[in-house]
Specification:
Structural class: mainly beta
Strand order of the largest sheet: 2-10-9-4-5-6
Strand content: 35-45%
Shape: globular
Largest sheet: 6 strands, mixed
Order of helices and strands: EEEEEEEEEE
Number of helices: 0
């Protein structure tokens, strides 16, 4: 089964940082735009960030702008989500997924696309 494996989650105090990793299982990351998403208990899944296939452009939800960054290392087949200044509102299961039909090097999307290869996610809990 083709899917991503997310890792790096955990328990962190408010104001702390975590770096999440997203690695494909069973296939190469290749040249797919990648999105990060999260789902908090009782809430719908929301798009958090994305990065174009060449890593040149990124996009972020308003709620995380200025705190989160996204990067990719195609040689090591991994996409990262660096999360700083975390708040309890960031508590959620975080997922990554591919947007293989997005061939643009100039724009990526965090919603409205047919994202594929969803993994099991990694839990992020921000609490004192």
């Amino acid at each position: 089964q083709l899917q991503f494996v997310e890792s790096g989650g955990g328990l962190v105090q408010p104001g702390g940082s975590l770096r999440l990793s997203c690695t494909p299982s069973g296939f190469n990351l290749g040249y797919s735009a990648i999105g990060w998403f999260r789902q908090a208990p009782g809430k719908e899944r929301e798009g958090v960030s994305c990065i174009t296939r060449n890593g040149g452009r990124t996009n972020f939800a308003d709620s995380v702008k200025g705190r989160f960054t996204v990067s990719r290392d195609n040689a090591n087949n991994t996409v990262y989500l660096q999360m700083n200044n975390l708040t309890p509102e960031d508590t959620a299961v975080y997922y990554c997924a591919a947007d293989p039909l997005n061939l643009s090097d100039y724009r990526c999307y965090i919603s409205g696309r047919d994202f594929k290869y969803w993994g099991q996610g990694t839990q992020v809990t921000v609490s004192s």
